[in-house]
Amino acid sequence: MNLIHFIRQFVLHTAKTGAVTPSSEGLADLITDTAGLHSASAVIQFGTGTGVFTEKILQKISDETRFFALEINPDFVKATRKRCPDAIVYQDSAANAKKYLNELGINECDCIICGLPWAAFSEELQNELLDTIMDILRPGGKFLTFAYLQGLLLPAGMKFKRKLSTKFSRVTKTKTIWLNFPPAFVYCAEK
Ligand SMILES: C[S@@+](CC[C@H](N)C(=O)[O-])C[C@H]1O[C@@H](n2cnc3c(N)ncnc32)[C@H](O)[C@@H]1O
Q: What share of residues in the chain are helix, strand, coil (percent, to 5)?
């Protein structure tokens, strides 16, 4: 999917897309390296967009790792499947992740890599998604999500940061990727 098509998705589905441009390779490397994917046995991705994170996940998981992704927008599902033919991508909300995990015969995963636009979500949707995450992540498991630097100064961004700290036992923030547009960093939250 090229930039024009991505911007079109932003115009058509602003609150669900939450970004005007795709994430950079640098941000994709940062989020997947911070996750420590080599030792994970089950990994889930939320919100694939163009598949830039998905491609890195596939490169960094082991052959034994079970992996699937959930993307709500059919155009982004198509783009991710085209870019990553080996990935299992379901067109569904991340809120339904447990159903797909259970289909693998397991209840918990080690890691969730997330591209969801939290700042654009209602409080209700944020809570529903975080409840799902807490339910399916194993104790000690990692939830990784990115945020734009300028969001840290906005009430919605500050509130989301506080929310992560109340839910998870440890939340750390990575360096900033200045060449991402806009500059972004990753929250690494451990259950
Ligand atoms: C900021 S974009 C992801 C950007 C991605 N890192 C990229 O560069 O292509 C957010 C993505 O989350 C998806 N999304 C939004 N709400 C969702 C939900 N409830 N479940 C799954 N995916 C969702 C959007 O359709 C969009 O693809």
A: 50, 25, 30
